[in-house]
């Protein structure tokens, strides 16, 4: 999600002491922009996030899946993404609970979204037998199996979830929660007791991002893995345990950077596009992406493409704080 840049007259009128606490998803552009970003990453066009051939094909597949998400957003009727009853949302607000909890009852429309996503991928399956096999397996799931997979995805469990099935189920659920989140009034979303979970749905963040433009300039936001909302968290603070004393940053140095950063040119530094924020207190990490160094960063897409960074930080003994909805691993 890219925030709109403001004109000088608008900037002067802002209350610069008011940090936007919550950024709701721009649902009409989010998935289209994400698919384009995934293809750029797959083509190895993003300096600072090198992608090898073994990952490129998977990113292209996920770009097609995100394209399918964009189709659903544009074609499904608004009632498919209706919000919960007002009384339920008021109760959540009064008790500092998320108004669209992932642990709550799922809208029945998610099954229709899931079916449409699979239909949109049939053209791709015609030329890729492996994809055709996965789609056939997904269509063969009975109601209990499909709902069980959805339960596990929303609970962010890996046991009992087929790693090739989960991204497609996650994509359908992501559309439903993102579309509903985009309808909310920011003032009707209360901060949670912990800042490490999404205030809209209670899911974990997939990564964090430093935003530019308007009142969000220079501030760090965590992006929800489910509903795509972003909430503010101060920088140099662990997004897992919230400690601040032992934070460090790891990055992949870009050896072929054409424009190295200098004191007079602090932007466009490829080594700062993607970094892992590590915490010695809990020994976990979560990636942080910087819009100041790449305007088009997308936390979910960039996190998916930067597996090299995961490997490096994992070898150093840090555990990933939470997963990516488009990439699942089984216990093995």
Automatic annotation (TrEMBL):
Residues of the FdhE N-terminal domain: 19-192
Broad class of the protein's primary localization: cytoplasm
Alphabetized UniProt keyword annotations: Cytoplasm
Location of the FdhE C-terminal domain: 236-327
Pfam families assigned to the protein according to its UniProt record, in alphabetical order: FdhE_C (PF24860), FdhE_central (PF24859), FdhE_N (PF04216)
HAMAP family, sorted: FdeH
Functional summary from the UniProt entry: Necessary for formate dehydrogenase activity.
Similarity remark: Belongs to the FdhE family.
Name by which UniProt lists this protein: Protein FdhE homolog
Organism encoding this protein: Duganella aceris
Gene name per UniProt: fdhE
């Amino acid at each position: 999600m890219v925030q709109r840049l403001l004109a000088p007259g608008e900037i002067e009128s802002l209350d610069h002491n008011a940090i936007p606490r919550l950024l709701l998803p721009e649902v009409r552009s989010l998935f289209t922009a994400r698919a384009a970003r995934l293809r750029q990453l797959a083509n190895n066009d993003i300096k600072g996030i090198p992608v090898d051939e073994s990952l490129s094909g998977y990113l292209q597949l996920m770009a097609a899946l995100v394209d399918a998400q964009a189709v659903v957003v544009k074609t499904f009727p608004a009632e498919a993404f209706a919000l919960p009853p007002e009384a339920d949302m008021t109760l959540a607000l009064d008790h500092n609970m998320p108004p669209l909890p992932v642990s709550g009852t799922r809208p029945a429309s998610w099954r229709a979204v899931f079916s449409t996503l699979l239909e949109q991928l049939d053209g791709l399956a015609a030329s890729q037998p492996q994809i055709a096999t996965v789609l056939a397996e997904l269509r063969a799931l009975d109601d209990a199996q499909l709902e069980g997979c959805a339960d596990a995805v929303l609970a962010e469990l890996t046991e009992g979830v087929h790693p090739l099935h989960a991204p497609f189920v996650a994509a359908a659920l992501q559309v439903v929660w993102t579309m509903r989140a985009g309808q909310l009034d920011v003032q009707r979303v209360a901060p949670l007791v912990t800042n490490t979970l999404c205030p809209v749905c209670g899911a974990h963040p997939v990564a964090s991002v430093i935003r530019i433009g308007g009142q969000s300039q220079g501030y760090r936001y965590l992006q929800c893995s489910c509903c795509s909302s972003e909430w503010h968290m101060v920088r140099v603070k662990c997004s897992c345990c919230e400690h601040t004393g032992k934070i460090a940053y790891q990055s992949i140095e870009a050896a072929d950077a054409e424009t190295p950063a200098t004191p007079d040119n602090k932007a466009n530094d490829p080594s700062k596009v993607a970094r892992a924020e590590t915490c010695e207190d809990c020994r976990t990490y979560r990636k942080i992406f910087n819009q100041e160094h790449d305007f088009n960063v997308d936390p979910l897409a960039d996190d998916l493409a930067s597996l090299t960074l995961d490997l490096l930080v994992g070898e150093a003994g840090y555990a990933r704080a939470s997963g990516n909805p488009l990439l699942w691993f089984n216990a093995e």
